[in-house]
TrEMBL record:
Residues 238-266 have a biased composition (Low complexity). SUPFAM superfamilies: Type I dockerin domain (SSF63446). Residues 238-271 are annotated as: Disordered. GO terms for molecular function: hydrolase activity, hydrolyzing O-glycosyl compounds. GO terms for biological process: polysaccharide catabolic process. It comes from Candidatus Amesbacteria bacterium GW2011_GWB1_48_13. Pfam families: Dockerin_1. This is Dockerin domain-containing protein. PROSITE patterns: EF_HAND_1 (PS00018).
């Protein structure tokens, strides 16, 4: 059996080898995935939720769960799980079980790419939402609600998929058809936001109802596997500033300065250190005028005007 997958613009042919009932190989994820432990397994081929944070989710393995490596010789897959008789213990209906991972990213990038494989029966809510923040600790801003499913107790998410009942253990029915029906694609979805963030939180919320006593155990809840998230676009480099042509400044007219008092003798207009007739003639030539030249124009008291007060200063110092 073979299936052709179109993933990120490349056609990847996955030869699906059946080694036991319902066991199938799935295409590997690209190396640009920001999510750590996207398959919920460790190097020893055991279920692991390392790198994830959760308040209630558990998980496990089944041969019909998706996998990209041959674990335990039979292509056993792994998945996070929140359902009745969950691995975390007990039965907790009508409770929000959260599973999330915070990843760093390039804040200049504004295009988000996401995909995951999901499966579920009856759920009050099964939601995937992306949040952004300037800090790895939040506060968080919702930037993309990828899917938000509700299959109440009188429905079954699997039965809502086009090909009907999916209880045969067939991986294509359990995972592919449900994922494609609710996410709309088996390839990554994209969403462009107005503002990029240096941190994103990829969060899953699952809440299941009280089970129908007439149905088999396991008829409520859901599972998650093969989570993919990246950002693209923008640049990691700071843009080179554009040099603005230098504008020739408009000359600023300096305000008229108050003349500095002369260091020569009072009444000495020509600066020869003598107070005599030559200084009187300078005063006389400028008498009645306004000036900013001070004693040089006969304005000996530096009042801004050459007048009788200046003559008296000259007269008092005449001959010195």
């Amino acid at each position: 059996m073979s299936r052709l997958y179109n993933f990120l613009g490349f056609f990847i042919v996955s030869l699906i080898t059946v080694t036991s009932a319902g066991a199938f190989q799935y295409a590997s994820l690209p190396s640009d995935n920001l999510i750590q432990n996207a398959w919920f397994r460790n190097a020893s081929c055991q279920y692991s939720n390392a790198n994830w944070q959760t308040n209630l989710w558990g998980g496990g393995s089944k041969t019909q769960d998706p996998t990209d490596v041959n674990c335990n010789g039979n292509w056993t897959g792994f998945a996070a799980r929140w359902a009745d008789q969950n691995q975390n213990g007990g039965f907790t209906p009508n409770t929000n079980a959260l599973l999330w991972q915070v990843v760093p990213a390039n804040s200049a990038s504004k295009t988000l790419h996401f995909h995951s494989l999901i499966v579920g029966h009856r759920v009050n809510q099964y939601k995937a939402e992306i949040y952004g923040s300037s800090s790895s600790n939040g506060p968080w801003t919702s930037v993309w609600k990828v899917f938000d499913i509700s299959c109440p107790v009188n429905k079954d998410c699997m039965n809502e998929a086009p090909n009907g009942v999916c209880n045969t253990g067939n991986r294509e029915c359990l995972w592919d058809e449900v994922t494609e029906y609710y996410l709309g694609s088996l390839s990554p979805l994209t969403h462009t936001i107005l503002q990029g963030y240096p941190y994103y939180k990829v969060e899953f919320l699952l809440n299941y109802p009280n089970p129908d006593p007439n149905l088999a155990t396991g008829d409520v809840g859901g599972k998650l596997a093969r989570v993919y998230f990246k950002v693209s676009g923008g640049s990691s480099l700071s843009p080179t500033p554009i040099k603005t042509p230098t504008k020739t400044p408009t000359p600023i007219k300096s305000p008229t300065k108050t003349p500095t008092p002369s260091t020569s003798k009072p009444g000495d207009a020509n600066g020869d250190n003598l107070v005599n007739g030559a200084d009187y003639l300078i005063w006389l030539q400028n008498y009645g005028a306004s000036t900013s030249l001070g004693p040089k124009a006969g304005d000996f008291n530096i009042s801004g005007k050459v007048d009788g007060a200046d003559y008296l200063i000259w007269l008092q110092n005449y001959g010195t």
